[in-house]
Amino acid sequence: MKVIRSMSLCALGIMLTVSTILAGCSSNESTSAPAPKDKQKLTIKVMSSLQTEPPDMNSAFWTGLEQKTNVHMDIDWVPINDYMNKVNIVVASGNIPDVLTITEVTSPNVVDAINKGTFWDLTDLLGDFSKYPNLKNNVPESAWKLMRYNGKIYGLPRTRPPINAVELIRKDWLDKLGLSMPKTMDELLESLKKVVESDPDGNGKKDTLGLDYDESWITAFGSMTPEYTPDGGLYPKELTNAYTSMVEWFRKAYSYGLMSQEFAVMKDSQYYSMFGSGLAAFYRKNAWHQYGLEQSAKKVQPGAVVDYVPYLTGPNGTTAVLTPGFYGGLFIPKSVSKDKALRILEFYNQVASSEITDYITYGTEGVHHKKENGVIVMTDQGKKEINNTTIEPFILKLDPWSKTDSPLAPNEVNLKNREKIKPVADIAKIDPYTVINSPSWVTQWPKYQGEFASIRTQAIIGKISMEQYKSYVEQLKAKKEFAQSYKEFGDNYKSLFGN
Fold first, then answer.
1. Per-residue confidence at 201, pLDDT binned at 50, 70, 90?
2. How far apart are CA 361 and CA 5, in angstroms?
3. Out of 24, 281, 409, 475, which could bridge 291 as a Cys pair, Cβ 3.0 to 4.6 Å?
4. 50 alpha-carbon distance from chain centroid
C-alpha cells in the first residue's frame, strides 16, 4: 500500500513543519477581499450538522462574515446525532437546499443519489482550478483525490488535518490504581476492567463505563490490508476478518462489564456527556476535546486528569489513523442553476483563503479574541459565538493543528498536546474503507444491513456464539448478488490507491 504509506510520511512532515506549509500556500491565494459591490448579495440555503446549541445567526460573528463575503447564509441546523437520517429524508424528498452538508459521503443513500444525477458533477465546473486557487492550494490534494466517485468530483471536501481522532483516558484513575498507560488493545481491556471495578467516582455503585462501541478501532484488527475475494474482488468492511476480530474484542469488553447495555443505540453526544461528567473512563474523540472534557470532569471531580493514550496496538494494526484530508463534503443539487452553482463555488473559494479561514476560526480581534504576547486568546464572546459547530458548513484552509488545538485551552496546553500527538503521524495510515465505495453495494446491502446489525449486537452481548456469528458472515459473503459489489470495491480501491 505504497500510496497510503507515503501519505503517512507526508503527515509527519506536516506535523513538524506547520509554518512552512501555511506560508507556502498563502502565496498562491486569490484575493479574499469582499465581493464586488456590483454583484447582488448571494443568499445560500444550507443544511448542516449541529454539534452545540443552535447559533445566533444575528450575532457579531455571522453578520461580520456576511459583510466580508457579500453572502447571506440561511442555515438549517440539524443535530449531529440524527443528521444522516435527516440527510436521507431530504435527499429522498428531492427538496434539497442549495448546499447540503453530508458527513458520510459513502453512505448508500448518498451514492444512490449521485448515481441518479441528484447532485452537480463539479468536475468540469472546477476545471483546472485556475479560477479557484484557494480550493486547489489550501485543501489537501488527498481530499480531492479520495472523495471522487467514479473519477468525478460531486462534493467539496470539508478540509480536515491528517491527525484527528485519538484515544482519551482518565489518567487520574489509572494513577490511583498504580496502572501504567495501556499500549495495546488487550491491555486497555484489562486496565479498564480494574478501573470500573474500583468504583472510581466513589459513589458506591458500579455505574462507570469503560468504553463505547466505535467501529473506527477496526484498523487495529487489520482493515488497512485489503481482503480480496478468490477472483480478485474486495470484500466490504463488514464482511472482513478484521471486522469479525473487532466484534470479538467488543464481545470481551462487554463481558467485562465495560460497555453500556444500550451501546447499540447510544448516541455519541450521550457518551460525550458521560465522559465529561466523570461517568466514563475512555473515549475516542477529536484530539482538541481533551481540554474541554477535562475541565468538565473537574467540575464534578476536581482531581480529574484527561490524557492522550494516544494510540493502541492491536493484533493486526493500530488505532493510529490519518484522515483522507476531509470529513464529509458539501454537495450542490442539480435543482440549483449553473450560474448560482458557479457563484457558490466562488464563495467557498473565498472562504478557503487565509483571511476568511482565520475569521471563521477566531473572529474579530477585540471582539472575539485578543492577542497576548502574539498569542490569540478567545474572549467570552468569542467562545460563545465560535465553536465546533461554526466550521461545519465550510471548506477551510488546511490547518494541521485544527483538530488538536482547543480554542478554550491556554497556549501552553495546546503546545504540549501537539507534542503528545506527533507520534501518531509516525505510523498512521488512511483506512481505505473510509473512502472506497461500490454502486451496486448501496442497493444490495440495505436489504441485509438491519439484520446484520442485530446479529452483530447479539454476538457482542453473548446471546449467540462467535461461531454462529462467523457462520452468518460466511453465508453473507457467499451471496451471488454481492459478486458485482466485490468487483466494484476492488476496482475502486485500485483507482484510489493504485494497487
1. confident
2. 31
3. 409
4. 14
142 three-class SS: helix
Domains of the chain, with CATH numbers? 2-162+325-403 (3.40.190.10)
Measured from the Cβ of residue 54, the count of other Cβ atoms closer than 10 Å reads 11
Contact 113, 335 (CB under 8 A): no
Instruction: Identify which of 54, 51, 23 has the alpha carbon closest to the alpha carbon of residue 388.
Output: 51
User: Partners of 289 in the beta sheet?
Assistant: none
Neighbours of 467 (CB within 10 A): 9
3-state secondary structure at position 96: coil
- 388 burial type by CB count under 10 A (0-12 exposed, 13-18 middle, 19+ buried): middle
Q: What is the DSSP string of 148-207?
A: -BTTB--EEEEE--SB-EEEEEEHHHHHHTTPPPP-BHHHHHHHHHHHHHT-TT-SSS--
| CB-facing half-sphere around the CA of 298: CA atoms within 13 A | 9
Q: Do the strands 429-430 and 321-322 form a parallel or antiparallel pair, or are they unpaired?
A: parallel
Per-residue pLDDT for 257 more than 90? Answer: yes
Per the rule left: phi > 0, alpha: psi between -120 and 50, beta: everything else, 366 is left
Hey, is 387 helix, strand or coil?
coil
pTM: 0.79
Euclidean distance between CA atoms 158 and 137, whole angstroms: 14
The pLDDT of residue 34 is above 70: no
Amino acid at 104: E
Strand order in the sheet with 306-308: 282-286, 165-170, 306-308
pLDDT of residue 38: 56
Neighbouring CB atoms inside 10 A of 43's CB total 12
Cα-Cα-Cα-Cα torsion 84, 431, 326, 184, nearest 10 degrees, comes to 90
Please give the grid coordinates belonging to residue 16. Answer: 513538524
Phi, psi of 467 (to 5 degrees): -65, -40
Nearest alpha carbon to residue 220 among 339, 312, 108: 312
Q: Give the whole-angstrom CA distance, residue 121 versus residue 229.
A: 32
User: CA angle, 97 as apex, 434 and 342 as ends, to 5°?
Assistant: 85
Cell of 147: 472523495
Indicate the SS3 state at residue 102. Answer: strand
